[in-house]
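From the methods appendix. Each design record in this collection lists the tokenized structure first, followed by the designed amino acid sequence. Records were kept in a plain field format so they could be parsed without special tools. The example shown here is representative of the layout used throughout.

RECORD:
FOLD TOKENS (332 positions):
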């Protein structure tokens, strides 16, 4: 009798053990299945977000193409210059805007075909001074780009300086691919770079500064002793009435008596070819924040040169933007 009881007890324990194992296995299976479902949903929503980014890029190129057929100048009053209001999408949204990058100082203008461009260096030094930064920072930026390995005195830096850092690296000795490289250059910490980034760009070709979209700070770098605040007042109406000639800017009261050299004047324009499209989409858990550099060489030559991912700041607001409330925040 006792033997039968013991056998029944063993059978019961075995049955309970089997049930427990089956229950644990079922829970694990359900958990994995739920995780797989969420993972698949995330992938699908992420792919959808990127598809909307691609569609927004196509929209941006279409806007720029239409603008080219309507205007001979590019200004803050053009259709492309207005932020795209948030667009509701199934499960999410899309926002975006376009910025004229030729309204910024092109760091790659500092060196042309391997040779230092003295006029551009002087202008960059003035821009640094306008922003309250040391003019000597320009030397380190030039050394980062120029073709030789000899550091400019007294504040330049070449391989011998960077090789001595805790995490050593070399100078590229070529044009900048992106302004984020500033953080690698001698003298630029995060605070310094962040102060300069809204006013500079790194475009693959030599570019002029568009006086219709440039900030007062960039325009005041054309010569010494130009007051950015006065420039801001003088250009406050350019959104409604853009300049048709680059020389119009140099005739403004704030530029009276300024010694603007010929090279600086030749480096001004009223039309642009390089634009930055900032696009952000969110579909469910999927998110895409992209900056697309769009080149507009002509009606049939509008293409994306490259894209960067991550949160992108807004461009610098001009004085007319602050008055209208269209853009008052900043970025590059």
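DESIGN:
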């Amino acid at each position: 009798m006792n033997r039968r009881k013991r056998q029944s007890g063993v059978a019961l324990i075995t049955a309970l053990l089997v049930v427990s194992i089956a229950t644990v296995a079922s829970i694990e299976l359900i958990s994995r299945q739920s995780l797989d479902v969420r993972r698949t949903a995330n992938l699908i929503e992420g792919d959808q977000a990127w598809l909307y980014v691609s569609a927004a890029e196509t929209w941006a190129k279409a806007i720029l193409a239409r603008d080219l057929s309507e205007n001979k100048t590019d200004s803050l009053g053009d259709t492309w210059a207005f932020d795209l209001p948030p667009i509701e999408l199934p499960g999410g949204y899309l926002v975006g805007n376009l910025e004229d990058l030729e309204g910024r100082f092109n760091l790659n203008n500092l060196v042309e075909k391997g040779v230092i461009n003295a006029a551009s260096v002087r202008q960059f030094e003035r821009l640094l001074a306008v922003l309250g930064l040391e003019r000597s920072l320009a030397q380190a930026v030039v050394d980062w780009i120029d073709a030789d390995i000899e550091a400019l005195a007294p504040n330049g830096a070449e391989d011998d300086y960077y090789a001595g850092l805790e995490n050593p690296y070399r100078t590229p000795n070529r044009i900048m691919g992106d302004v984020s490289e500033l953080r690698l250059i001698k003298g630029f910490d995060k605070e310094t770079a962040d102060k300069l980034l809204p006013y500079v760009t790194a475009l693959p070709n030599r570019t002029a500064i568009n006086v219709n979209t440039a900030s007062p700070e960039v325009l005041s770098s054309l010569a010494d002793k130009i007051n950015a605040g006065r420039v801001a007042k003088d250009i406050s109406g350019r959104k409604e009435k853009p300049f048709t000639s680059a020389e119009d800017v140099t005739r403004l009261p704030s530029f009276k008596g300024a010694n603007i050299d010929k090279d600086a004047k030749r480096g001004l324009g009223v039309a642009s070819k390089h634009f930055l499209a900032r696009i952000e989409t969110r579909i469910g858990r999927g998110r895409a924040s992209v900056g697309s550099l769009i080149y507009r060489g002509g009606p049939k030559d509008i293409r994306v040169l490259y894209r960067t991912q991550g949160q992108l700041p807004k461009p610098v607001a001009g004085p007319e933007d602050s008055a209208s409330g269209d853009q008052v925040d900043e970025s590059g």
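APPENDIX NOTE: The radius of gyration is 29 Å.
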